[in-house]
Structure formats: C-alpha cells, structure tokens
Amino acid sequence: MLRNQNIKFKKILILFWTCWWLIAFWTDLSGSFKSLGLINVKWIYADNFPGLQKSLEMYSAPHWLAVVLFIGIIVWMLISTLLFIHASIALHKDKSIWMQRAARAFIVSLSLWLAFFLADQIVMKFMLEENHMVQGGFELLSFFALYVLPE
After folding, report:
1. Cα distance between residue 20 and residue 28, in whole Å
2. CB atoms within 10 A of CB 1
3. Of 66, 85, 67, 68, whose CA–CA distance to 26 is shortest?
4. Helices and strands in the chain: count of H runs, count of E runs
5. pTM for the full predicted model
6. Cβ atoms within 10 A of the Cβ of 122, count?
7. I need a surface site. Which of 21, 29, 50, 96 has the fewest CB within 10 A?
C-alpha cells in the first residue's frame, strides 16, 4: 500500500511542476506582451522585464542585452514546460519511462534556477535571489523525493 501511495505522490509532484512551469511560462510571456504594448490587460503582471532592465542599469548594459536575456529566459521556461508535459503524458506508462522524462525536465528547469542564482548575485538583487532560492530549493526537494521515497 505504501508503494502505491509513494508512486502516486511522485506522479503528483510531476503534475504539480508541469502546472507550475506552464503558469510561470504563460505569465512571463503575457507579461512580456504587455511590456511591449501588444496587449493591455490590467491583471497581467508585467514587472519581470522592466525589473531585468533596471537590474542591468548598474553596468550600463545596452538595451538589447535585456531583450536577449529575457527571450532566453522565456525560451528556457518553454523548454522546461514542454519537458514536464512530456513527462506527464507518460505517467500511465512504465515507471522507468516517466522517471527518465521527469529527470530530464527537472535537470533543465533546475539549471534555470542555477542561472537565476548567479544572475541575482551578479546584479546584487539579494531579495530576488532569496525568492529564487526558495522556489528552486522546493523544486530540488521535489526532484530528490522522486529518488529518496521508498518504492
């Protein structure tokens, strides 16, 4: 019975992170559309790109650098989302298949958190770094749970 509960919990973790990355991708993408003036919806959060621009001001970075970095973040988030979706659609298959797909999704998305940690340190945004560490740490804990929980 414990085996079935742990397997279900591991699947729930994968589904949770699939939803989380999908929402994070969508909110950042729609926020970038709002920042560009392509959509004008009041409830859409659009502070991430301006925040990135402001963070780079201390280095007198050219405007295009913030654009390139933000596009990179959006693409990385999209890839993470697609990999989690790929893992989720395999949850009815053999455990080795969905675990391999989940591992790939976790490694790619956790790598984004590592990039955020470094970027936060470079631009000295320590409160943002704390937020990223909490989110990334929770995802890392979820990844460990896939392997640490007994079968």
Report:
1. 12
2. 5
3. 85
4. 5, 0
5. 0.91
6. 12
7. 96
